[in-house]
């Protein structure tokens, strides 16, 4: 067995250190070993931060201890719980040196060949660096412990790490105080036995796609019974007001009662879903913001700091966040719905944005998500989106599905300058010219679609099937509605167009759909904010229909 084999076999996640100092040359040699690690696309994205300050170590330790309380509660096994408490899980203050190994996500703002298909390869490169550092320290007679039981949001905050820096964890470096009987500590405490050999399986066959093709043929919805429509209109007209004097509220009340099939409609468990995904076309500079903003904004949603959060809180609307295809791996315990198709679409400038299998998965996931919400008793659902580059995707789809020239369908999106707008129009025009596929909906959606846009369209169709009121936000969601309406025109009966966006193509699209929005506030934020802001108007329509006195009950003479 070689010396390297000995190091690999004896390598331990050190958790207990002596007070011996670590010479500078030891750290320098270890960091150089980390720098020699493979780096996808030669990004050199790995970054290091050394910590020797007792104040900083104490702050990190307190952060660990706070989060570790949650870890202790993850097992109901009393014996296992005691074993957990007996573990020396960290030595943050004890270790002479703290090291943060991180990666710089800003390198992804420029095209890197090695990251096509998965930007997370940048993270994996940093893990290779951590492994090299671990091995180098072991060879020099030192050890390293990896602390990952942390609230990473707070971790970055207390250390003032830049937004683009993503830490793998906190690493403790020093002289090992014990070799744990040359066993992993968890094995020594009978927590878990390490297997003797790696698990390796040979794959010999390709699995055929078993996904059932979505059906574009839908059954027509039943027309409301004439008696019901007459009774409903009589109820509206009998309120103590001149006929038609509540304008749009009367139309909304009639629509709501028709959708819910009751003369006394009531919105229950309203829910707004924000679908987030990345778009390959964003790599061509069609947005004022880098693609990484999609991931950042989803984090903002989860932290409760976005506009949609405050408006949903204001109006007591439940908010659901969906990862439909963000170019990032969110923690599995993040408070979002995991429906990732892939880490962003491909750029439709030259190749299809997605495969037909991915398109089908979008329809399946969108349907499943809304069916789950319908089972909670929700009968009113709003749709929002987040995705850098998705106005470009929506613009192309709008042009193809309405026949309008692309120039009429392109706007400034996130706020690009006039020169950039011209470039955006030219790029999208070229993309359409490059398309040689069939003029069928399925092929067009696969070639130009976005994961979040297709999931929204599917969700809207499912909401219609579940007799839910469908709140349509701005330009992107209206394009998703356009797709849904191509599949089932009757969906318009359930749709409430909440506002007219400042995105210039939105009014043209609303005209095409013959849709009259509730509000016109020059909004162009997305996120479903228009749905949340328009919601009180819907509640006013519900309230007047249910609670306002009639001429008869109030003893007031009719006209």
Automatic annotation (TrEMBL):
EC number, as in UniProt: 2.4.2.21
Record-annotated active site: 527 (proton acceptor)
A Pfam family hit: DBI_PRT
Reactions catalysed, as given in the entry: 5,6-dimethylbenzimidazole + nicotinate beta-D-ribonucleotide = alpha-ribazole 5'-phosphate + nicotinate + H(+)
Pathway membership, UniProt: Nucleoside biosynthesis; alpha-ribazole biosynthesis; alpha-ribazole from 5,6-dimethylbenzimidazole: step 1/2
Keywords: Cobalamin biosynthesis, Glycosyltransferase, Transferase
Taxon lineage: Bacteria, Pseudomonadati, Bacteroidota, Flavobacteriia, Flavobacteriales
Protein family according to the UniProt entry: Belongs to the CobT family.
Protein name: Nicotinate-nucleotide--dimethylbenzimidazole phosphoribosyltransferase
Ribonucleoprotein recorded as keyword: no
Species name: Flavobacterium piscisymbiosum
Alphabetized GO MF terms: nicotinate-nucleotide-dimethylbenzimidazole phosphoribosyltransferase activity
CDD domains, per the entry: BluB, DMB-PRT_CobT
Domain Nitroreductase: 8-175
InterPro entries in alphabetical order: BluB (IPR012825), Nict_dMeBzImd_PRibTrfase (IPR003200), Nict_dMeBzImd_PRibTrfase_bact (IPR017846), Nict_dMeBzImd_PRibTrfase_N (IPR023195), Nict_dMeBzImd_PRibTrfase_sf (IPR036087), Nitroreductase (IPR029479), Nitroreductase-like (IPR000415)
Function noted in UniProt: Catalyzes the synthesis of alpha-ribazole-5'-phosphate from nicotinate mononucleotide (NAMN) and 5,6-dimethylbenzimidazole (DMB).
Gene: cobT
């Amino acid at each position: 067995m070689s010396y390297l084999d000995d190091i690999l076999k004896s390598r331990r996640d050190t958790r207990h250190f002596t007070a011996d100092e670590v010479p500078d040359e030891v750290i320098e040699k270890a960091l150089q070993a980390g720098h020699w690690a493979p780096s996808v696309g030669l990004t050199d994205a790995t970054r290091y931060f050394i910590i020797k300050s007792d104040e900083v170590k104490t702050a990190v330790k307190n952060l660990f201890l706070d989060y570790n309380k949650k870890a202790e509660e993850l097992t109901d096994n009393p014996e296992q719980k005691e074993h957990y408490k007996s573990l020396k899980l960290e030595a943050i203050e004890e270790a002479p040196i703290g090291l943060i190994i991180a990666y710089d996500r800003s390198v992804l703002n420029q095209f890197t060949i090695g990251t096509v298909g998965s930007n997370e390869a940048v993270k994996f490169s940093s893990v290779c660096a951590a492994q090299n550092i671990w091995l180098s320290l072991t060879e020099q007679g030192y050890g390293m412990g990896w602390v990952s039981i942390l609230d990473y949001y707070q971790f970055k905050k207390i250390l003032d790490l830049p937004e683009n820096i993503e830490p793998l964890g906190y690493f403790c470096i020093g002289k090992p105080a014990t070799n744990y009987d040359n066993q992993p500590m968890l094995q020594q405490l009978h927590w878990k036995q390490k297997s003797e050999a790696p698990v390796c399986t040979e794959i010999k066959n390709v699995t055929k796609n078993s996904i059932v093709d979505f059906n574009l043929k839908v059954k027509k919805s039943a027309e409301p019974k004439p008696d019901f429509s007459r009774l409903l209109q009589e109820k509206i007209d009998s309120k103590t007001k001149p006929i038609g004097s509540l304008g749009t509220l009367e139309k909304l009340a009639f629509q709501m009662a028709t959708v819910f099939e009751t003369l006394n409609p009531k919105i229950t468990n309203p829910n707004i879903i924000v679908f987030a995904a990345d778009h390959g076309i964003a790599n061509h500079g069609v947005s004022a913001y880098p693609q990484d903003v999609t991931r950042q904004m989803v984090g903002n949603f989860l932290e409760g700091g976005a506009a949609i959060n405050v408006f949903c809180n204001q109006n007591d609307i439940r908010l659901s966040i969906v990862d439909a295809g963000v170019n990032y791996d969110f923690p599995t315990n993040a408070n979002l719905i995991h429906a990732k198709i892939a880490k962003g679409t491909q750029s439709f400038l030259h190749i299809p944005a997605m495969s037909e299998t991915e398109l089908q998965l979008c329809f399946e996931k969108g349907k499943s998500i809304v069916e789950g919400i319908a089972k909670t008793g929700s009968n009113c659902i709003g749709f929002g989106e987040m995705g850098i580059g998705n106005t470009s995707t929506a613009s192309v789809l709008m042009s193809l599905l309405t026949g309008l020239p692309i120039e009429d369908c392109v706007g400034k999106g996130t706020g690009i300058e006039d020169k950039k707008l011209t470039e955006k129009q030219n790029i999208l025009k070229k993309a359409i010219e490059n398309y040689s596929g069939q003029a069928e909906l399925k092929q067009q959606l696969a070639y130009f679609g976005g994961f979040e846009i297709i999931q929204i369209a599917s969700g809207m169709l499912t909401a219609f099937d579940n007799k839910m009121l469908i709140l349509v936000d701005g330009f992107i969601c209206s394009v998703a509605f356009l797709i849904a309406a191509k599949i089932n025109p009757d969906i318009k009966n359930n749709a409430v167009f909440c506002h007219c966006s400042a995105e210039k193509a939105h009014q043209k699209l609303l005209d095409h759909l013959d849709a009259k929005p509730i509000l016109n506030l020059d909004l162009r934020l997305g996120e479903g904010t228009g749905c949340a802001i328009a919601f009180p108007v819907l509640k006013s329509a519900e309230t007047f229909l249910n609670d306002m006195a009639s001429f008869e009950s109030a003893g007031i003479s009719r006209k």
